[in-house]
Amino acid sequence: MLPLVDVTRGGDWKEAPAIKSRLAGSYCLRAPAQGSCPYANIYEHCPSFHTDSTHLGILSAPRIDARTLTADAESRRWIDEAERHHALIARLDVLISEVDGA
Description:
- Helix content is 50%, strand content 8%.
- It is mainly alpha-helical.
- The chain has one domain (4-100).
- Strand 1 (19-22) and strand 2 (27-30) form a beta hairpin.
- Helix 3 runs antiparallel to helix 4 (79-100).
- The radius of gyration is 14 Å and the shape is elongated.
């Protein structure tokens, strides 16, 4: 396992030359050859995931980062990765709307 500073080059993790995901308490960095992690964003896929208005901040943080990560993926021409982030934003928008309007 590489030290994190080698992967991020001492900079912001969102700018690392890796496939990135924002997690609730941290983040994930993967080599492009590994592809996206199917476990990175449970709220994207898990039918058992439930939330409420007390978690708006937790849902908002990955949405903000997903916009940055989308731009990064698009600039690297990682189209599938950019689409994954777009899908995450759309899913978070639904969840935020549901709990914010409740």
